[in-house]
Amino acid sequence: MSSIDKHGPFAEETRLIHAGRAPALFGGAVNIPPFRASTVLFQTLADLDAHDPALRMVRYGRTGNPSSHAFEAAITELEEGHDAVSFASGLQAITSSLLAFTRQGDHVLIADTAYAPTRGFANGILSRSGITVEYFDPGIGAGITALLRPTTRVVFLESPGSLTFEVQDVPAICAAVTAANPDIVLMIDNTWAAGLLFKPLKHGVHVSIQSATKYVGGHSDASLGVAVCMRQDHWLRLKKAAIELGACASADDLFLGLRGLRSLQVRLRRHHESGIKVARWLEARPEVTRVRHPALPDCPGHALWVRDFTGACGLFAFEIAPVPRPALAAMVDGMHHFGMGYSWGGFESLILPSNPAAIRTATPWAGGELIRLHIGLEDADDLIADLDAGFARLNAALEAK
């Protein structure tokens, strides 16, 4: 669908503007309209009988249409893979990918940094399906070979982790696993990097997954997921699984995803700059025991981030010493610019207290109270003032106790 050559000799900023677009096919419209269609009509029996998933034939709304084809082409170009499959959410992209490449009796390795709903699916439906799930230390690197079994079928990474922000040595893990067993499928949740700041398919990953709800959509108004495959056989297997599972994205959310892609790079640049400014301010706060931002030197995996990433997004966390719940509430309940809620990647800033100890198993959480921030597109100084006032409320509550 792209109007320029795939991975052509153009800057990434340029490719993001044109990827997945074909105005000549749609009356010259700059944006492909959302195709809200379930039934597709065929003119001849020969057309009805013809079916080749690799040709992206439009046969039924759920199995693909010009909206999904355009979005998938654009994301494939962004992540520099073979092809992509779109889904109704990031979690659906994760669960469908895991189901596509596993069967009863298989063994799956998952990084201990994994998104909590990923763990919920792995510990629930995947385990009940007769698949053995094992979590591993995100800092394991090439040492992962010690955990491989003859039945290992998938190694699932998430780097940085979206709660504790450890960065994994993805190239070392991929090289070690592939050398030990080239049939093992390597997957990664690449949402933090938005497909832009890190290119996992260049480092040996086979399936790169994003919650496009986050930075790709960018406006907190779409629910969308996508998985990009490096190999055609992997894409065909995932596409077949998506069809069997009835997994698909809505035309309107695909439209919003394509819209968000056009401004992804400029938005991420602002998230990066403001995020680092706020993180460095937090480092100097007496209430903060540690800032977990991969761009900061004392964050686990910082050297790997410098080596492998081209920038940071706006999502990171900081630790404080344990405080009574009412004192924590005094801080977060009164925020002006920071909303309190799940998700991230939109234009607005968010704050979320969390406890990683509840979901870590391979590597027990040894840190303090964790407060995750998403730094949005507001003025960074306004956000700092909001946090400063929040710390004042926290200290006042502690003194009043």
UniProtKB/TrEMBL annotation:
The modification N6-(pyridoxal phosphate)lysine is found at K214. Its cofactor is pyridoxal 5'-phosphate. Keywords: Lyase, Pyridoxal phosphate. It comes from the Bacteria. Coiled coil: none annotated. It catalyses: L,L-cystathionine + H2O = L-homocysteine + pyruvate + NH4(+). GO terms for biological process: L-cysteine catabolic process to pyruvate; transsulfuration. Gene3D superfamilies: Aspartate Aminotransferase, domain 1, Type I PLP-dependent aspartate aminotransferase-like (Major domain). GO terms for molecular function: cysteine-S-conjugate beta-lyase activity; pyridoxal phosphate binding. The keyword Lyase applies. InterPro entries: Cys/Met-Metab_PyrdxlP-dep_enz, Cys_b_lyase_bac, PyrdxlP-dep_Trfase, PyrdxlP-dep_Trfase_major, PyrdxlP-dep_Trfase_small. The keyword Plastid does not apply. PANTHER family: CYSTATHIONINE BETA-LYASE-RELATED. Belongs to the trans-sulfuration enzymes family. This is Cystathionine beta-lyase.
